[in-house]
Amino acid sequence: MALTPDDLTTLASLGTTASDVATLAAEARARWSGLRVTVVDALDVRGETPALETASANVFLMGCDGHCWSMTTDPAAAAGLVLAARS
């Protein structure tokens, strides 16, 4: 499943209104059922640049070649989201 620029706008809005990263994850899973959504500790993604920063979480886009996962900046290549709570 690919994301569009409109999806990123929606995700940013959800991240602003979500009370915490778990709520954002639940809302993202409900909206984009074909997208894998994972919540990690901020230390797990230290040194990485988020594709999107919201009030409740830093959002990283993950691409997959069918076997390996890697960070991507291309929403169209996103097969998943990694969310890390903002402190």
Q: How would you describe this protein?
A:
This protein is an alpha+beta fold. The protein has two helices and five strands. It has helices spanning 5-17, 21-31; strands at 36-40, 52-53, 57-64, 69-72, 78-85. Strands 1, 2, 3, 4 and 5 form a five-stranded mixed β-sheet that branches. A hairpin with a 4-residue loop joins strand 3 and strand 4 (69-72). Helix 1 runs antiparallel to helix 2 (21-31). It starts with a helix and ends with a strand. The model has no long low-confidence stretch (mean pLDDT 92).
Element pattern in H and E: HHEEEEE
Number of strands: 5
Structural class call reads alpha+beta
Q: Give helix % range.
A: 25-40%
Key words describing this protein structure:
87 residues, 2 helices, alpha+beta, five-stranded mixed beta sheet, globular
